[in-house]
Amino acid sequence: MARTVLICDDALFMRTMLGEILKQAGFEVVGEAQTGAEAVEQYRELKPDLVTMDIVMPDMGGIDAVRAIVKEFPKARILMCSAMGQQALVIEAIQAGARDFVVKPFQPSRVLEAVQRVLG
Amino acid sequence: MDVDRFRALYAAEAEEHLQRLSESILALEAGGEEASQALAAAFRAAHTLKGMAASMGYGAVTEQAHALEDRLDAVRAGTLVVDAELVDALLAAADRLQAAALDPSPGRAATAAPVGTAGRDRSGLARPAGVPAVRVRLEEDAPIKAARALLAVAAARAVGGVTGTLPAEFDEAFDGRFLVLLEEDADAEAVTAALRAAGEVASATVERGDAQAAGRARPARATTTQVRVDQRRLDEVAERVAELAVLQGRLAEYAGARDVGAVNGMGDVASRISTVASELQHAVLSMRMVPVADVFQRFPRVVRDAARSLGKDVELVMEGQDIELDRAILDEIVDPVVHLLRNAVDHGLESNEARRAAGKVPRGQIRLAAERERTSVRFTLEDDGGGVRQEAVVARARERGVLPADFEGVLEGDELFRILSHPGFSTATEVTEVSGRGVGLDAVVNRVRALGGAIDMRTRTGQGTAFVMRLPLTLAVAPALQVRVGQEIYAVPLTHVAEAVDFALTSVRVDGTGEWLVLRDEPVRLIRMRAVLGVDPAGGERAAVVAESGERRFALGVDEIVRREQILVKAFHPGVGALPLFSGATLLADGRPALVLDPLSVS
Is B112's pLDDT higher than 50? Predict the structure, then answer.
């Protein structure tokens, strides 16, 4: 059975691109969220094997979403997706319980390495 | 791979390749087959250096080596023609590369640390002594290194046994190098594995104990001299030390027993200890020995540079490069030899035109040879120039008041050399850039003497000049003869001793010029030490130590030759100043102090 992933990003382009990378690696994209609140809601419903989380999203940012998810599901495996220059936010997300991070622009190999580590 | 661990190795090896690079560039001028081999060697050296520097992350060094490699490649392809200018340029490039390669830190700190922390180089992060730790370095291009370090440390903490990190917090300036400090009994291997699995970790290595921490705090290359030691020599020392420990145990046992058997046993142990100690001494000393090639290899460059700046064509021939000598002595003679080499190029050798006019080969030759003698090494530095001009020396000596103003005559034997090495004496009509001013032959003589060596000169008009230096093999201990004059015991280092003779087996001849010891039908001047040392001549000398310096031989008459032993010569405190007859003091085997006689200063 393919592993499931929930992709959280407010940009369609990013969701599509990430989705392509993960699908090629054998994941099934079971949900897509555009806000932090949606991310938390969908996590409860889908319990995916993996979550990719953008940092800056409207209506509850990625970091708050991480806190909310991890509080309820301590074993949640969340991969942060950050842009350059968000060093402090990435550190905060990790302290909140994110398992790893990748930096945009995405290189498929780097994304998949990070996914491996998160799931490993 | 943790590159910090390899820094000392890098430095030592880089030096070798740099040396080979310079040598090979010099050899390009030779032309023919030798030049093409030299080109290949230079290319290999530059290439190897480039690879080493890149592995260490020394960007500037890598680039410079690469640029040099490109130029050498152009020579190989024939687009650059080898001439003196090109060789000059290549040598200059090699010099710059050397400066960068041996001290790569400034460039590296600048590239590794962001603005605001420029110069702050954490690569030498010191581990607290005695605290085990894992040294981690993140990949150079890992983004957001502070976050990566945080993940890695979290993974390490999950394993357990982690007490903290250095630096304690990872800020914006964090350069990707950190230490994970561990409890004494932590599972360091498991922690290391967790750190490695955290992603983008270039290296993670366990460090324990104090030695490495100390070495880390201060890079070795700045303060110590590294000597490569043959493993077998180390094994030999370890074996002897182990045997000493066993002997000590036996000694303790006998000391407890206190019976006749024990006394005999202690005698056996004592004699065995003395054997082991001398084997140990030999083994340790042999570690200090390095081939003279280690320093000789710099000399072709010295000669070439001097010759180029004077417009002369000079060939340097070196012999005996495999002769071994104490590193400490070898390092000390570099300056004197460089001085003599420059002198030879500048004053010793005539201009190419003058040589041609004199019917000589236009290219001057300097020969530098090392030869092993009994307990010393002899260096001969010989040029085939015009020789020292007596008249010029005499004229200058009179002018300087070194010789009486009305001196007329010929300087015999070593008189010429004594005058030449008089402080401040110079016969060169102009002070040239090559030989420099101020430091003259007297500095060379003093340095050689300070090392317990001797120097002589021979010169022949039209045929050249040779300097012969004789140096002890090692500074640490020297074999010496214990001799007695009156009530006192003196030590005479064997460096200058040719033989010891008993008056009963030879004859003493007296003539108007003094006393002569007849050795195998040859008269050798006899100097009675009782007279020299102001001891009552009654009782008289019954033996002699025959000393030699260059071609000169003379005999020092002493009451008795007591024995031969190894002595550790202690130089006098500088406050004491130079004592005319003695080069230092030593402790004899029985614990009594003795003065060390310098035979050359007696004659």
Answer: no
**A103 chain-B contacts, CB cut-off 8 A:** 143-144
What is the average per-residue pLDDT within B263-290? Answer: 83
B chain contacts of residue A86, beta-carbon cutoff 8 Å: 144
Question: Are the C-beta atoms of residues B213 and B126 closer than 8 Å to each other?
Answer: yes
Which residues does chain A have within 8 Å of residue B146's beta carbon, measured at their own beta carbons?
87, 91
| Domain count across chain A | 1
pLDDT at B105: 55
CATH number of B3-110: 1.20.120.160
B197 and A100 within 8 Å at the Cβ level: the answer is no
Domain borders along chain B are 3-110, 122-222, 231-290, 309-472, 478-602
Interface test with B, best of A84, A106, A117 (most B CBs within 10 A): A117
The three-class DSSP label of residue B481 is strand
Interface contact B144-A94, CB threshold 8 A: no
Query: What average pLDDT does this structure show over B352-371?
Result: 92
Which position has the higher pLDDT, B402 or B377?
B377
Sign of torsion over alpha carbons B549, B555, B558, B563: positive
* Interchain pair A94, B154: CB under 8 A: yes
Interfacial A residues in 48-107 facing B (CB < 8 Å): 82, 84, 86-87, 90-91, 94-95, 99-101, 103
Q: What percent of chain B has pLDDT above 90?
A: 15
Domain limits at A16?
3-119
Average pLDDT score over residue span A63-70: 94
For residue B141, which residues of chain A lie inside 8 Å, CB to CB?
Answer: none
The winner for highest mean pLDDT among A37-46, B69-78, B323-332, B581-590 is A37-46
State how far the alpha carbon of A33 is from the alpha carbons of A5, A37, A51, A59, A116, in Å: 11, 8, 10, 11, 22
Count Cβ atoms below 10 Å from residue B13 Cβ, excluding itself. Answer: 14
**If you search the block for the tokens 């969908």, which residue do you land on?**
A42
Instruction: Please state, in angstroms and rounded to a whole number, the distance separating the CA atoms of residues B395 and B405.
Output: 9
In B188-207, the residues whose Cβ lies within 8 Å of chain A are 197-199
Which pLDDT does position B240 carry in this prediction? 85
CATH of the domain at A107: 3.40.50.2300
8 A C-beta contact, residue A55 and residue A86: yes
Best mutation target among A55, A87, A109, A115 (most B Cβ atoms within 10 Å) is: A87
Residue pair A70/A96 in contact (Cβ under 8 Å)? The answer is yes
The pTM of the full predicted model, rounded to 2 decimals, is 0.49
- Does A117 sit within 8 Å of B198, measured CB to CB? yes
Mean pLDDT of B172-188: 86
- What is the per-residue pLDDT for B60? 80
Q: Kindly tell me if the per-residue pLDDT of A38 is higher than 90.
A: yes
Domain B309-472 sits in CATH at 3.30.565.10
What's the CATH code, domain B478-602? 2.30.30.40
- Whether B151 sits inside 8 A of A84 (CB atoms) is no
- B148 vs chain A: nearest CA distance in angstroms? 8
Architecture of the structural domain at B122-222: 2-Layer Sandwich (3.30)
**Closest CA relative to residue B335, chosen from B436, B262, B429:** B436
Least Cα separation, residue B57 to chain A (angstroms): 23
Pairing of strands B497-502, B133-138: unpaired
